[in-house]
Amino acid sequence: MAVPLDARRVDVRGLPDVDSLPEPLRSRVVRHDGVTTTGMLARAGVTDTVTARRVRAGAWQRLHRGVVLLQSGVPSWRQRAQGAVLAAGRDAALSHRSAGYAHGLVTSPGPVLVVSVPAERTVDARAGLRVHRRREMPRASGSLRCTDVAGTAVDLVAHALDDDAVVAVLCEAVRLGVPRHRLLAVLDGRARLRHRRLAAGLLGDPDARVESPLEHRYDRDVERAHGLPRSQAQVRERLDGGWVRADRRFERLGMRVELDGRLAHAGRADGDVWRDNAVRVAGGDVTLRYRWRHVVTTPCATAAQLAAALHARGWRGTLLPCGPGCAA
Question: Which domain of life is it from (predicted)?
Answer without folding.
Answer: Bacteria
